[in-house]
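4.2 Preliminary Data

To establish feasibility before requesting continued support, the project team ran the inverse folding procedure on a target of 174 residues. The structure was first converted into the token representation described in Section 3, and no sequence information of any kind was made available to the design step. The complete token record follows.
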């Protein structure tokens, strides 16, 4: 069972190999604003293809706003490499090998394939903005392929959040 991550609290660790070599290691990221981690369902998902392609097309804008960006999935290296080649990802880093346990640590929903074209087990979509000190700022997770945050809208809000020291929301406890 997945669990909720707590806003403004440290995130779980995350270290994955990247298509083309190297590793994404959240602990090593040093963005000016946020590290944005976009979890996609996998190469089998046409909605993911559209979303990741859009993100790749906006990568320069996110980087100019102080973000480091990575897209990750439970795909193996072969499928992640196919995604990079077929989806016009440009300079977007594509991480692979997310495990079921890692996905659960991040509060993601896990699905089992019901069609032959799907990966047997995969994480449903998620987006996380992590502060440079490792605390969670924004989280958006879904249990279906269709709900995805509007990337243009989110990008337009980042300068406001940073300029106004806008706090992570959802931290009130009774």
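Position-by-position output of the design step:
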């Amino acid at each position: 069972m997945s669990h909720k991550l707590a806003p403004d609290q440290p995130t779980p660790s995350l270290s994955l190999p990247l298509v083309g070599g190297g590793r994404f290691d959240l602990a090593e990221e040093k963005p000016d604003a946020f590290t944005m981690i976009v979890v996609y369902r996998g190469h089998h998902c046409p909605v993911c293809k559209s979303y990741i392609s859009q993100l790749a097309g906006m990568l320069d804008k996110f980087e100019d706003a102080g973000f480091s960006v990575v897209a990750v999935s439970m795909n193996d290296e072969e499928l992640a490499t196919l995604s990079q080649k077929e989806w016009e990802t440009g300079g977007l880093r594509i991480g692979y090998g997310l495990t079921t346990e890692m996905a659960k640590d991040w509060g993601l929903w896990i699905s089992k394939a019901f069609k032959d074209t799907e990966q047997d087990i995969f994480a449903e979509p998620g987006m996380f903005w992590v502060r440079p000190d490792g605390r969670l700022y924004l989280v958006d997770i879904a249990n279906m392929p269709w709900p995805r945050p509007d990337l243009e809208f989110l990008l337009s809000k980042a300068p406001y959040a940073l300029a106004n020291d806008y706090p992570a929301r959802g931290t009130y406890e009774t």
